[in-house]
What does this fold into?
Amino acid sequence: MRVSGLILPWAFLLATALFAVGLYWALWVAPPDFRQGDGARIMFVHVPAAALSIGVYAVMAAASVTALIWRHPVSDLTAKSCAPVGAAFTLIALITGSIWGKPMWGAWWVWDARLTAELILLFFYLGYMALWNAVEDQTTAARAAAILCCVGSVSALLSKYSVNFWNTLHQPASLSVDKAEHVHDAFYLPLLVMMGAFYAYFMAFLLLGVRKEIRARRIRNLRGALAREAGA
Amino acid sequence: MSLLPVYDKYAPYVWSAYGLTALILIGLALWLALEARRAARTLAELEAKQARKTSPASAAPGPSASAARLREAP
It folds into this structure.
């Protein structure tokens, strides 16, 4: 708790600074795309949100596996804290994708493999959060939610690799380790800054969420102890 | 350079995408911050309550216990 308390303000500061730089670069400095014009600027929020929607799910799945196998006391709380942020990123990816799709594809929504997999991923995030809230006993809730999270990993993988598996309407990845495959530097650099901003936002709210969940666990234990004392 | 850039026919799409993203991220941030603050306050209250119950002042009646009760009195 002490270490996370020290890191937290810096994570917030980093996220704010990266968002400020990234938004200025994306909205004012980056040139319009030669084919998509200014509509391509939606990429700077859509791509990081979509990438992080899968990335956060990977963190959540790793924490769930750790909770199931090694029963580490904080891993299930880490997975639980990832869920609202991941769901928000998935929702942003779907909304901005839909808004971008209208002028480019002529439709707000198509049942394309990537889009459908992303929608199913959102349902897994929502189902995961609902499961935690639906089960009274927190140990049982943690176990059931961890199993559901592992099952949902298939959807996250499908969302990531659907553009490689099938011939979809959705374009291939905008970011790649191979320089020849990713977008031009004029878009690539502000995109990297926005990716950093989304990552910093995730880190900050993951830390805040885990701290909150540790306190919530202590509250439940203390309430139980006080109730037992009152009953004795 | 104008304060807000002009994107011609794409302006409604670009601004609505950025606006909704900001709304979701800021909304989530506020909700999580308020929840974290509420949890911290509730825990502090419960810890104080438990400390009062387990303190020697309340466990053993005597002059110190009376003083503690007096301090708690409204």
Remarks:
- Residues 62-74 of chain B have pLDDT under 50 and may be disordered.
